[in-house]
Design brief:
Shape: globular
Strand content: 25-35%
Helix content: 25-40%
Length: 107
């Protein structure tokens, strides 16, 4: 499994993101392209966990100020419970926030 920046231009990955969001939060997200647009807004740092060619986890954060970022979501496919995906996503997200000048990531 790899943890990496989410490829916003990969439409297969975007479709998998919609499916994962609906799987985890069926009352909050609909199976529509705007779901991906909302989760992948340009001002957000977005991270993917990928196993083979399948998205198995996702995390994102947005800036609250110049140095403070808010983690918005962390989705993990329930078929991968023992992989520590959420922890790995959060650690990578923190590193990416620091790389763009952030100092604090709040959940």
């Amino acid at each position: 499994m790899i943890i990496t920046e989410f490829d916003r231009e990969n439409y297969l990955l975007r479709d998998q993101l919609i499916d994962l969001a609906v799987l985890i939060y069926p009352t909050d997200y609909q199976k529509e392209q705007r779901t991906a647009e909302e989760l992948l807004k340009a001002n957000k740092v977005v991270i993917a966990a990928i196993e083979g060619d399948q998205l198995v986890g996702f995390a994102n954060a947005f800036p609250k100020s110049d140095t403070v970022w808010q983690q918005e979501n962390c989705f993990v496919d329930p078929r991968f419970p023992d992989e520590q995906i959420a922890e790995r996503l959060s650690a990578f997200l923190r590193d990416e926030i620091v790389a763009v000048g952030g100092k604090t990531l709040i959940s």
